């Protein structure tokens, strides 16, 4: 794939910092920024209070049921529903949503400077992403300490056009319940599930994907790192890269880059700008999988260190991506550096 030689990335730290910030240069992948928690939000804001209420549930699981579904969805209505507030690290809260034995769904609530973001992480039982995943939206107002709404964003509209008018709601309701709800503006489409917070249950098995760590045996022997979950807005970039690569679509790959982006490949001259990037991706295709080992963010700049594989969980190479967030909120690659493990 077209992503960066670790030696090159580390020796060119000044360049990497210039385009998207630079992580540690001592040979270790950058660690997750755990300092960026709800301090991103004004401490007295309703959004901060909402997040604090969610954090009090961390580690607990709760059973629920469907209270509204238009049209009816027998698969949900007949199944045991469980939400598990599994992780509250840093600037993200992850809540697996189990429907019977189906462990494919996780709600991901991200905490940003300008509000909250909800994404739906959908996986297959082998840990790979579903074709429709990471859709959702961001808050557009303060909401309240008990209720936050998430209108669909542009990424979601492009991925699932019919969902472009979706509005998701997360809410605490009197009586000790938590609500996950969906309405589709301009239609009758709606869904609502309520979970009983007064009666915690034993945590369910891990969601699909959480058990799949690339090169676990190599990591255990000190030969390589394990993967981490990226914040949803950055995970979208890697997922879009995988999809475009598999489709052999140079236009879609090029669109993931800033106009002045770089591609730095082993034994190739540096490539810069959309025209040259499109040419460099003329011959792509295959079941590419990308894994993040570390990430650092500072405002509108981010750096991801990771590995890549083809059709397996065993990476055959590594990469460094630097990214920049545009004024419209979309993250794009400003430099893509890679090399193989051999």
Task: Give your account of this protein's structure.
- The two termini are 14 Å apart.
- The chain has a 10-stranded antiparallel β-sheet. A 6-stranded mixed β-sheet has the order 12-11-16-15-14-13.
- Strand 9 (177-184) and strand 10 (190-196) form a beta hairpin.
- Helices cover 20% and strands 36% of the residues.
- It contains 9 helices and 16 strands.
- Residues 2-38 and 215-221 have low confidence and may be disordered.
- The protein folds into 2 domains: 6-32 and 228-340, Nuclear Transport Factor 2, Chain: A; 38-196, Lipocalin (Beta Barrel), CATH 2.40.128.
Q: What is the total number of structural domains? A: 2
Q: Strand count, sense and closure of the main sheet?
A: 10 strands, antiparallel
**What is the tally of beta strands?**
16
Average pLDDT: 86
Task: Output the CATH class name of the largest domain.
Answer: Mainly Beta
- Strand portion, in percent? 35-45%
Helix content: 10-25%
Q: Can you tell me the CATH architecture of the largest domain?
A: Beta Barrel
Which fold name fills CATH's third level, the topology of the largest domain? Lipocalin
Approximate shape: globular
Rg calculated over all Cα atoms = 20 Å
- Sequence of strands across the biggest β-sheet: 6-5-4-3-2-1-10-9-8-7
End-to-end distance, in Å?
14 Å
Q: Name the structural class.
A: alpha+beta
- Number of separate helices: 9
H/E series: HHHEHEEEEEEHEEEHHHEEHEEEE
Oligomer: single chain
> Segments where pLDDT lies below 50 for 5+ residues?
2-38, 215-221
């Amino acid at each position: 794939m077209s992503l960066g030689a670790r030696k090159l990335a580390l020796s060119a730290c000044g360049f990497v910092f210039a385009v998207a910030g630079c992580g540690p240069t001592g040979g270790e992948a950058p660690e997750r920024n755990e300092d960026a928690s709800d301090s991103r939000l004004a401490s007295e804001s309703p959004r901060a209070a909402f997040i604090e209420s969610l954090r009090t549930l961390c580690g607990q699981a709760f059973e629920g049921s469907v209270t509204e579904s238009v049209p009816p969805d027998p698969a949900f209505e007949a199944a045991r529903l469980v939400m598990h507030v599994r992780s509250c690290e840093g600037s993200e809260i992850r809540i697996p949503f189990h429907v019977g034995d189906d462990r494919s769904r996780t709600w991901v609530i991200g905490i940003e400077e300008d509000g909250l973001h909800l994404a739906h992480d959908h996986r297959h039982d082998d840990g790979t992403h579903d074709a429709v995943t990471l859709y959702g939206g961001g808050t557009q107002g303060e909401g309240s300490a008990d209720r936050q709404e998430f209108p669909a964003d542009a990424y979601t509209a492009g991925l699932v056009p019919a969902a472009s008018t979706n509005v998701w709601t997360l809410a605490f309701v009197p009586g000790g319940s938590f609500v996950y709800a969906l309405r589709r503006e301009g239609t009758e489409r709606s869904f609502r599930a309520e979970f009983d917070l007064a009666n915690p249950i034993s945590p369910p098995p891990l969601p699909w994907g959480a058990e799949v760590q690339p090169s676990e045996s190599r990591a255990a022997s000190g030969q390589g790192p394990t993967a981490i979950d990226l914040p949803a807005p950055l995970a979208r970039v890697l997922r879009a890269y995988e999809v475009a690569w598999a489709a052999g679509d140079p236009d879609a790959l090029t669109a993931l880059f800033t106009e002045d982006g770089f591609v730095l490949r082993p034994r190739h001259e540096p490539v810069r700008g959309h025209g040259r990037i499109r040419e460099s991706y003329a011959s792509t295709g295959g079941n590419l999988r990308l894994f993040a080992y570390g990430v650092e963010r500072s405002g509108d700049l981010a750096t991801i260190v990771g590995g890549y594989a083809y059709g397996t969980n065993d990476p055959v190479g590594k990469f460094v991506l630097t990214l920049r967030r545009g004024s419209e909120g979309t993250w794009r690659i400003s430099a893509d550096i890679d090399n193989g493990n051999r």
